[in-house]
DNA sequence: ATGAACAATCGAATTATTTGAACGAGAAAG
DNA sequence: CTTTCTCGTTCAAATAATTCGATTGTTCAT
């Protein structure tokens, strides 16, 4: 009434691979009669034969042949279960939700996930993008075990631990035919406020609260870096953009650097991976943080 | 040493769903101690707890939570195995390879497979297209259990059984600017031979052997109906095409009917599903043949 | 013909699972 | 604060599932 299907299927597979009950018995380290018993029990459940015993060497019946595929699929799933159990035993997370500031370059993220996936193919990653303020909140309240945020001063770090993982240079850019691009020499910071900024944000929050770089109310917001680039290229406004993302467009003549007095050009922006001290990342989280680390660019003090 | 993992997972799932060991015991019709035993055995295998017993109502540990997904996947796979076994018990094929003449309209096939899939979602269909002569051979030699071929006279039917499943009208067409389309009134059959025919065939065989409609050596062959239509539309030659396939193109003015003395216009073409008398189709094969049957169009004697 | 390899079968032994009863602990009701 | 209910664990006994080794009859290769 309670046959061990998985074990029967393992026997089934071993017989098919070995070509005989005896070979399967040797391979599994059991007596031949145990193999015979298991196959008979399987066939009794199925109510039909999977092996044809009329021949000297047992051979698969058409039904057995048809079942072989499904048996292997089920066994592979069972192996996956074992692998998952082993993972959890070693404190590897099964799912790893990540919340990251939208200004963290997508390319960085993709690079990291590619490296990570090679090590932990079983771990399911989900990514949500939200402003750094929201990242801190979500991590602190343990909605997300891991976050990526801008490394700013003046934030509250109680209960939060983290490490800097990347830095990029941020460029002030506009389209070549934008009025700001026509100005000879450097222009004052105030001049920026006479033109529309295109600003990266996630639609859900009040943009004024989250970026000191927003200088005036004439701001258009978009929620992906590709949309930001497109809108600036179309001359709809000026904006800040990661050097790396902007470079191809600048080389292609679709964007230019702006020369503004008040803004160091290009200015440095640093990102940190963060988590709570109470629930530090497990093995997979550690590996992800290690993958996020970009040591190509030297990190200034 | 040989725990019944699937059973343990069923218990695990029942406890999660019921919220308590007692509820699971009631749901599964077993004693509470059996539930306790099963979960303990599972946890011993895993080497960690899946339920937190410190609370009054048992609750999932984070590890248990993580495993729930995988457990359900594995159980669903096991159910699929049961379903497949049930199918085979009722003589439903697991795979159903089909070999069909390339002139059998793709639309007919898609319609049939859509109906079939609703009844037998577990059955894997594979389709190969080959000339009717090859279909007969492959079915006779049991390389394919089921074939679809042109219903012609003069073939050898020993050991082959079958039934007519569809008929379509076949039209003689060319592009509007083709020389044949410029002729006033009907032209003789011989005139066809002065122009190139575009002919549907599967590349592997000598085309002369397989279609009595091939009238001369200036024949270009293509292996899909869409390619045939395109080439005729481009004015590369004349050809035979199913009325239904041709109609939209004729209405759009991209093709015209040709008026030829020697060819009944449009002429009727009939298709049959065939199998060997020795191995008639099983349940799934029968259902597929039934799905192939198109009774919209009256079948003439 | 003969020996080697194979699979089915049987009874005994072993292992896995179930049961019911006894127990202690938390929760809910009085 | 006690009573009562439900809960999960534990234990020993019972049952079911699986394994083993020995025996038998078969087919294959020599």
Automatic annotation (TrEMBL), chains A, B:
Record keywords, A-Z? DNA-binding, Transcription, Transcription regulation
**Keyword Cytoplasm assigned:** no
Task: Please report the stretch or stretches of sequence annotated as the HTH lysR-type domain.
Answer: 4-61
A single GO molecular function, which one?
Answer: DNA-binding transcription factor activity
What Pfam families does its record include? HTH_1, LysR_substrate
**What PROSITE patterns does UniProt report for this protein, alphabetically?**
HTH_LYSR
Indicate the family of this protein.
Belongs to the LysR transcriptional regulatory family.
Q: What is this protein called?
A: LysR family transcriptional regulator
